[in-house]
């Protein structure tokens, strides 16, 4: 749609200094002509109208925590960081409305003040609420909903100049589509979430032999509130993480955790589980053939431990080391077979991988384009240190995942396009029809989303 003449520089409402935009992983960047940082829905609508009049496209950006090029634009980058904070709290029904650019960390802290929490979270808290919802972000646990499933209403600024609301009773068709919206239906201004009473989690982490773990994967997933495991390529061991939801106890017992144990855990995270990974990643990038040997060393360093903490602190871990990630959502019953084939591939090809492969699970989602739409899902995430090559491994693994009916996580690296994706989503045509209704001119599309959706 962009009709901007070369070199011409439009001026828009809420414009801020523009520069190179980079994703957290560093693998995606953009040089937008204009960056805007609107502070309310009126300014968002104004920007959309001005961009349309100038023949420019607009891409909203959250925290840039996606590894796929869902954000980049050469036209208008809409920074959502000023659309932040609580809109309203209904403590009785545990319904909370927040501005779309609120990060999950901020959200959790705000909810804690009201005795509330989000039922399930990913392993990082830096992404924004709208960004997380856009790509179908998940945590782990077969009985616990993903972020998009917890959404009960949204308010969306559309290219036609309207602020459209949708909920389970008003425009439920739009809510179904907007649960995983890819940033192509409009600019999300606020999101209402069904929260739960605040809770604590007990976390138990163990080193276990990989073989038995993979054979009993479904049972282990069904037997825990939140279960995941990570396998270090080059080893036959895995690191399991089991989170159990604790009952609410009298005030004396519900201190989040003893400060000493939390301080020790943070030190352990920072020194053993993160700096060691970083250090080994750097050594590995100098001496590639040694990486799997280094993985054996790291795998030994990750010892068993147990601790209790408030839910959002236990769900998330610090991630000071940048990496690139590809993750696939597989039918739960195919996940163990896909993992075995992946392991054979790594052993056969001898890829040097400096980060573990992680396996998680989630229940079916209702979002039309949720990778977990309509089925219990096993997620397999591949990671590689940012400065090391990942393309060959990710591509070969993708063939395995695709053969098992896998759907890519929209925010991670993959090579699927509309032709591969459309047959995998029963709600595909319904989503495309709604997108056309809300944005007939394609104001919100970039090259990547055009390719993904075939428009
Ligand atoms: C360290 C790390 C850990 C991660 N852990 C997990 C995990 O445990 N589980 C998981 O599923 N994923 C995980 N991810 C992936 C991440 O959650 C998703 O890619 C998520 O979409 C990123 O959110 P964001 O706020 O950074 O959005 P961005 O990456 O900035 O944008 C994502 C999409 O949202 C759209 N968007 C953002 N704001 C708006 C808005 N207000 N209105 C309309 N569209 C909008 C953008 O246009 C884009 O299409 C992780 C990523 C990192 C870097």
TrEMBL record:
<dbReference type="GO" id="GO:0016020">
    <property type="term" value="C:membrane"/>
</dbReference>
<dbReference type="InterPro" id="IPR016169">
    <property type="entry name" value="FAD-bd_PCMH_sub2"/>
</dbReference>
<dbReference type="InterPro" id="IPR016166">
    <property type="entry name" value="FAD-bd_PCMH"/>
</dbReference>
<dbReference type="InterPro" id="IPR036318">
    <property type="entry name" value="FAD-bd_PCMH-like_sf"/>
</dbReference>
<keyword id="KW-0560">Oxidoreductase</keyword>
<feature type="domain" description="FAD-binding PCMH-type">
    <location>
        <begin position="28"/>
        <end position="198"/>
    </location>
</feature>
<keyword id="KW-0274">FAD</keyword>
<dbReference type="GO" id="GO:0003885">
    <property type="term" value="F:D-arabinono-1,4-lactone oxidase activity"/>
</dbReference>
<dbReference type="Pfam" id="PF04030">
    <property type="entry name" value="ALO"/>
</dbReference>
<dbReference type="InterPro" id="IPR010031">
    <property type="entry name" value="FAD_lactone_oxidase-like"/>
</dbReference>
<dbReference type="InterPro" id="IPR006094">
    <property type="entry name" value="Oxid_FAD_bind_N"/>
</dbReference>
<dbReference type="InterPro" id="IPR007173">
    <property type="entry name" value="ALO_C"/>
</dbReference>
<dbReference type="InterPro" id="IPR016171">
    <property type="entry name" value="Vanillyl_alc_oxidase_C-sub2"/>
</dbReference>
<protein>
    <submittedName>
        <fullName>FAD-linked oxidoreductase</fullName>
    </submittedName>
</protein>
<keyword id="KW-0285">Flavoprotein</keyword>
<dbReference type="InterPro" id="IPR016164">
    <property type="entry name" value="FAD-linked_Oxase-like_C"/>
</dbReference>
<dbReference type="GO" id="GO:0071949">
    <property type="term" value="F:FAD binding"/>
</dbReference>
<dbReference type="InterPro" id="IPR016167">
    <property type="entry name" value="FAD-bd_PCMH_sub1"/>
</dbReference>
<dbReference type="Pfam" id="PF01565">
    <property type="entry name" value="FAD_binding_4"/>
</dbReference>
